[in-house]
Design goal:
This protein is mainly α and 288 residues long. The chain has one domain (29-282). Helix content is 72%, strand content 1%. Helix 3 (49-71) runs antiparallel to helix 4. The longest helix has 32 residues, at 83-114. Residues 47-283 form the ABC transmembrane type-2 domain. This is Transport permease protein. InterPro entries: ABC-2_transport_permease, ABC2_TM, ABC2_TM_bact-type, ABC_2_transport. Keywords: Cell membrane, Membrane, Transmembrane, Transmembrane helix, Transport.
Length: 288
């Protein structure tokens, strides 16, 4: 009896004792950890914003200048608008996607190369929270780059960016940034050196971006190449984003075709997110 009373008194005296090993302390979503990871990733690219935000805006503006001078002379119109106004939306969302990919593809890869990957794997963050923080930061960079590019293009003579469908601008912009953020995170998990990352960027992301109808409508292509273009998810992002500004696109003749593309992109991103989550949870090339 005396021993039992002593144990009870010790239990009452130490209410803050550590829980048994393996029993989680944080339940639900670790909001503080998720927010900390997001802020860390955002501050990382903002420290070099000349390179990560403003340089892409200048590069994209040069694309607009060169193609407008080369193809937009003599009042050429595409989809009933001046060529510069036709090209501008596609360039904006293309810059958003490419920079979202660049941001998420760097996070885990840099940690693996520098030996600091433990700083991301050891904190009490689930795989979903780790993925969410990195993806959210990459989308944030894409939005900031898109805003900088749009600001530069508005100042360029002959470009009109008056919105026709705000929902399409927001939806397709987010879907494009999320899609490339997920692809970038998968690349970051798979890659073992920066050459691997550059290979995906140069041989997959860049060609799919440039051959997705950014500078032309696919109706000008042969039927076989039109079919190939319609298999490219980048095409639907760029055409849908352009629809938000011009009120028309080469996806289809009706607004319902654009809506179907919006739903299709959401499903595609969901599948890509599940794949990314499963790969991240498996620890492949991260915990070996």
């Amino acid at each position: 009896m005396a021993d039992q009373a002593q144990k009870q008194s010790q239990t009452r005296a130490a209410p803050n004792a550590f829980p048994p090993r393996g029993e989680p302390i944080i339940t639900g979503i670790n909001r503080i950890g998720l927010w900390s990871l997001y802020i860390k990733e955002v501050r990382r690219f903002l420290k070099v914003q000349t390179q990560t935000i403003w340089a892409p805006a200048v590069t994209t503006l040069l694309f607009l200048v060169i193609f407008s001078v080369a193809l937009g002379r003599s009042g050429r119109e595409v989809l009933g608008v001046p060529f510069a106004s036709f090209v501008a939306p596609g360039l904006i969302v293309m810059a958003m996607m490419q920079n979202a990919f660049a941001n998420s593809s760097f996070s885990l890869l840099a940690g693996k190369i520098q030996g600091t990957i433990i700083d991301l794997l050891m904190p009490p963050l689930s795989e979903g929270e780790l993925m969410g923080g990195i993806i959210a930061a990459a989308v944030t960079r894409g939005i900031l780059v898109g805003g900088a590019v749009a600001l530069a293009m508005v100042l360029w003579p002959g470009v009109s960016l008056a919105p026709a469908h705000v929902w399409a601008i927001v939806w397709f912009g987010l879907m494009g940034a999320i899609m490339l953020s997920l692809l970038g995170l998968l690349t970051s998990i798979w890659a073992e050196k920066f050459d691997h990352n550059a290979a995906i960027s140069n041989f997959i992301v860049a060609p799919l971006s440039l051959l997705s109808g950014t500078f032309y409508v696919i109706d000008n292509l042969a039927p076989a190449f039109q079919a190939i273009s319609r298999l490219n998810p980048f095409f639907y992002v760029i055409s849908g984003f352009r629809f938000g500004f011009l009120g028309q696109s080469d996806i289809g003749d009706t607004d319902w075709a654009v809506m179907q593309s919006a739903i299709g992109l959401a499903v595609f991103n969901l599948v890509l997110a599940v794949i990314t989550y499963r790969v991240l949870k498996s620890g492949w090339k991260l915990k070996d």
